[in-house]
From TrEMBL:
Residues 24-277 form the EAL domain. This is EAL domain-containing protein.
């Protein structure tokens, strides 16, 4: 009975006791491999102005098709990545896919901003600002076309380093959007001093806006707060016309959700944007599609 055997025994025993742990470790190493193999994709979902139906931009959402598990949702692997050194690698891939897409659209005369999600951990140190500065330069992209969505969790964190990174992004001209607003604990003072350009109302409130007076009240309060701060409010997860109409009546500025469109792969969103542009041009010329 050697020390080595006993260690193996413990390892096996531990894995058996906590199958989820080995599962998570397996998933994380598969994710690392997926990043190395460059197989992560971005899907894009439009954000639309409620005032005139114009396209405000698209949000890039990471998609991972696992070789044996099939599609793994980001909510399952982003938290794992965040607890490891994988997150910066993932963000790097996502940013470079978004920049390449912006460059491809530029070439076709399309100027549609892409918002990418970044994690709190991405905002420590200067890795992200360096990456963005280099990327925008390499691809020849105007800073305003790449937006960052940061969750309200970030806003609640009050560190000098974070403040500095957000100020630097602001100096670079990169717009910031506060994601999942209403689920965190940001103070009004922090909100007022941060260089942000948009509040996104979390889907949990939006989804109940037709059923619950409390949720209507919360959504109204968030929209009013955004406007008091001179920021547009964008509702996420809008699925029905009824929800959209309630949001419109509350003065919401923009919507994103399945009602407008589901997140789509690059070619599909490009067609969607071009199609929409043609239709809105027709509308302005007073032509209906039927007369074409
Ligand atoms: P999020 O940034 O709040 O993104 C919105 C989520 O709501 C997306 O889920 C989107 O597919 C979903 N959604 C949009 N419209 C509707 C709707 O009408 N109904 C419903 N039920 N859902 C809708 P997804 O793509 O699964 O992403 C989940 C979260 O994972 C994101 O939430 C974001 O926090 C994170 N995430 C996604 N991609 C990335 C990424 O590239 N980097 C980082 N750091 N996080 C990401
Ligand atoms: Mg987001
Ligand atoms: Mg969100
Ligand atoms: Mg959300």
């Amino acid at each position: 009975y050697t020390a080595k055997q006993s260690r193996q025994g413990i390892a096996l025993y531990a894995a058996e006791r906590d199958p989820h742990r080995t599962d998570r470790l397996g998933l994380l190493s598969d994710l690392r491999q997926a990043i190395a193999d460059d197989v992560l994709e971005l899907h894009y979902q439009p954000k639309i102005s409620l005032a005139d139906g114009s396209l405000l931009g698209v949000e890039g959402l990471v998609r991972w098709r696992h070789p044996s598990r099939g599609f793994v949702p980001p909510d399952m692997f982003i938290p794992l990545a965040e607890q490891s050194d994988v997150m910066p690698l993932l963000t790097q891939r996502v940013v470079s896919v978004a920049l390449a897409q912006l460059a491809a659209w530029n070439e076709r005369g399309l100027q549609v901003p892409i918002a990418v999600n970044v994690s709190p951990i991405d905002l420590t140190g200067h890795r992200l600002t360096d990456l963005l500065a280099r990327g925008l330069e390499d691809y020849g992209i105007a800073a305003g076309l790449l937006q960052l969505e940061i969750t309200e969790r970030v806003v609640a964190e009050e560190t000098a380093e974070l403040q500095e990174v957000l100020a630097e992004l602001n100096r670079m001209g990169i717009p910031l959007s506060i994601d999942d607003f209403g689920t965190g604990y940001s103070s009004l003072l922090r909100l007022k001093t941060l260089p942000v350009g948009e509040l996104k109302i979390d889907r949990t409130f939006v989804s109940k806006v037709c059923e619950s007076r409390v949720d209507v009240g919360i959504v109204r309060a968030i929209i009013d707060l955004a406007h008091a701060l001179d920021l547009p409010a964008i509702a996420e997860g809008v699925e029905t016309v009824q929800q959209q109409e309630v949001l419109r009546s509350l003065g919401c500025d923009g919507v994103q959700g399945w009602l407008v469109a589901r997140p789509m792969p690059a070619e599909q969103i490009t067609d969607w944007i071009l199609q929409r542009r043609v239709t809105s041009l027709d509308a302005r010329r007073g032509l209906s599609r039927a007369t074409m």
